[in-house]
Request: fold
Amino acid sequence: MTALTLEQRAWQRLDSSTDDDLPRAELLRGDAVMPEAVDWLWEGWLAAGKLHILGGQPGTGKTTIALALAASITTGGEWPDGKRADLGTVIVWSGEDDPADTLAPRLRAAGADMQRVHFVQGVRDGLEHRPFNPSQDVGALRTALAELSDVRLLVVDPIVSAVSGDSHKNAEVRRGLQPLVDLAREHRCALLGITHFTKGTAGREPVERITGSLAFGALARLVLVTAKGEADNGEPARRFLARAKSNIGPDGGGFIYDLSQGELPDFPGVMASSVIWGSALEGSARELLAGAEQQEDDATGDAAGFLRELLRYGPRPAKGIFAEAGSAGFSKDVMHRAKRKIGAVAVKQGMDGGWAWRLFTSEGGEGGTQSRLQPSRPSGNGLPPSVDDGPF
Reply:
């Protein structure tokens, strides 16, 4: 009997197989699809089951904006255009900000119902506990969300953390984001991912400026952007939120906003930033950004402007500054030089606390506000007081 070659044996197995043994694409006939309206959380801006990207210049308060929107959902409060939000629960994961000293204070400052807020802390697997990784642990998050019935918003900051591979490759970005997109669709909640603009991209289409692969902007159904213009004639710089892209509604337009810093009423010494919404804007996101970024490298685009914006409302932990600076493309050495350039000082956060940086004024704080943090020793050379930066 003649022996069969490997190729002949493979064809023999294929010929003997049935249709049920082969992979089969699932087809849905058109008349079985029932048209339905977009389920808007905030009409034209946030949609249930869809991916949204919120990107922009460093230091424009992107996370604070996301938390302000989250707060509106937890209370059924107002959106920036005055419309009411449907009541729901929000889920927040941040790889950069701590819930206790940053996220929860900002949510409280925005008036959030904290019983409707859940922070993703980590993953419990038997006796093992590990930090949550959005590129690997969506299954564990799905299990946790199964216990909640009214999740309306999922915030992921930064969204690039959902990609385990190269965030500049389209295929890897799509593969990394898809589990989160599927989760949002299953729970009918809006997925809001936060990211930065790539340095040196002023003047380009806003969607093309999102850090990483173009797939971030392509996969998102809506792309929102933030920017801060130059101060003019003594007037404070104007910030705005704009809609750069929408595949499911109108694009363009936006809202002016400002950031306010204050102490939480029931938590003495705890400072938090919050959003103050202003009037509506018309025009495309590219036009609005062009008006705000005439000289990007001389404003918030450079390290000194970036750092000044971070410290505008008070001291910031040095480790947090380095984390945000790294995301924006600035090294530690560059940030130390920027610190000296703007006359910022390093201060100790209590005997057992870490180091923080703040702007220096003759009144002892930023903008005439007395700082609760003091330099550990004065300078005797006529320069603004400074201290060792510690082991950063």
